[in-house]
Amino acid sequence: MTTLDKVLYTARTHTTGGRDGASRTSDGRLDVKLSSPGTSGTGTNPEQLFAAGWSACFIGAMGVAAAQKKVPLPADRAVDAEVDLGTNAGGYVLRARLNVSLPGLDPAVAREIVDAAHQICPYSKATRGNIDVEINLV
What we know:
By secondary structure, the protein is an alpha+beta fold. 32% of the residues lie in helices and 28% in strands. The protein has 3 helices and 6 strands. The protein has helices at residues 46-69, 107-120, 122-127; strands at residues 13-16, 22-25, 31-33, 78-88, 91-101, 132-137. A hairpin with a 5-residue loop joins strand 1 (13-16) and strand 2 (22-25). The radius of gyration is 17 Å and the shape is globular. The chain starts with 12 loop residues before the first strand and ends with a strand.
């Protein structure tokens, strides 16, 4: 288990109704309706929120990795995250793919940055060894 030496930020949400409810952050910047995946509901779902958070964090981690290697990242860098919700004999499980676009970078350098970012990103650390994850360069 990882321990914290210093807390940099604490996100606080209040959620009601589960997958068919609503969630709001303590600062009011996020206030969303929730709907179960595949339903006709008007809200987002936890898997979409996880994908958005992880992809944003991963882009930040690539920035750290690129700075350490003294490599400028392209302005149009992007991560398309795909989070699958499924089942197995143990119940519900997640699986994820991060499809990373670093246009203009040498593929070998891009792979080094992506691999380093996967070691830096807190979302990657949280999922490592817990769910199947693919990190693809596209």
